[in-house]
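Q: My labmate handed me this sequence with no annotations at all. I'd like to see what the chain might look like in three dimensions before we decide whether it's worth expressing. Could you predict it?
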Amino acid sequence: MVVSQSAFALMVFTDRLFMSRIDALHIASALGGGVTFFVTISLFQGVISYATALAAQYMGAGQLAKCPRVVTQGVIMAAACQPLLLLLGWQAANLFEWMGHAPAQVALERQYFFVLLAGSFLALTKTCIASYFSGIARTRVVMISDVLGVLVNIPLTYALIFGVMGLPALGIQGAALGTVIATGFSVAVYALFYFNRVHRRRFSVMDSFHYDRGILQRYVRLGLPSGMEVFVGAATFNLFLLLFQSYGVNEGAAMAIVFNWDMLNYVPLIGMNIAVTSMIGRYVGAGDMTRTNHVISAAFLLAFGYSILLGTFFIVLREQLMNVFATPGEDFSTIVTLGSQMMIGLATYVLADAAILIASGVLRGAGDTRWLMITSMLIHVLMLVFQVYIIKVLAFGPMASWWAFVATLLALAAIYLWRLLGSRWRSPERLARVMAE
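A: Here is what I predict for the chain of 437 residues:
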């Protein structure tokens, strides 16, 4: 799962690296358009990704035939939400202008956003089937499919951006189109594994293509809080990002570059989060919580070890890392100076990210999604209120806003760890309610 998520990080990283070869405006626009797209689909993606926990719980309970039915219900939801997604997307595209972005940046952000939105069904379908394979412990399938998708994406995106190999030069639209095509390719690879004869027979795949009210109700009951958590977290983060970009193009480019390096820590940890969700889910399904402490200890050891190494790397080489994205022939010194200061904050919160993702993976696998939703929504909304006050009312500079963001992540990590150390999430009565259809 770490390799799989790292492949995704590499794909986004190279997309923005290609954008930097045009100018800083394209880097900032790709970040704004990409994050806004994620916010638009995040509620549905958060619900559908709960397939990891559901499939793991059914597998732990020995009910293998119910595992692929989770996929069917997820694809039904992905198709059903398309009209609403288009409506939401049409309104979300106005955010760029409302946040005071320059007209040239707004035009680029909208182009990137709308191409990604056109491929939303493929993105949600991929999320569903990848979550399913993670839940049944076939994570090698996820790795192979995602890595192959990235190997298609990188050269294709380069060709579509700059117009090589006989393809038109589409600029920022080419970056988004390459992502959509690569997502479709990954779905096709997943389908090969899904309909493989051995897998098909073991899980009764061909009998799963029907509406299952019980599974869908569990999907909504447990997955909807998870989706709301993701949506509100992503929405408030996106609004913070757009607010920060109102400082100017240089500030927006600096943030885009810092978050690009942040993905080297955050996205692999999402792989750990998914793995932990799957393992805890299987123990919940089997009614055996005796080994959960071993899973938690191992996950924290791996996550903290990785984040400490990467945080040190971010501090020591912060200026060099910013200069990787320098546009040839342009003065990049202002962006490097600001970004280097922001990299110190990044190195500060990488351990908080590790704690948040491991703790939330455990709690999500155990079905404690309502608590996660309420806590995450409250902290993220407070963060956005503080950011509006800092940026628009007090008119403080970008570093004040940045350190307030860092403090929010540290506080969220402390609250998640407090919940994890308690015993309410693992009580037998609550776990029995989680498994009820």
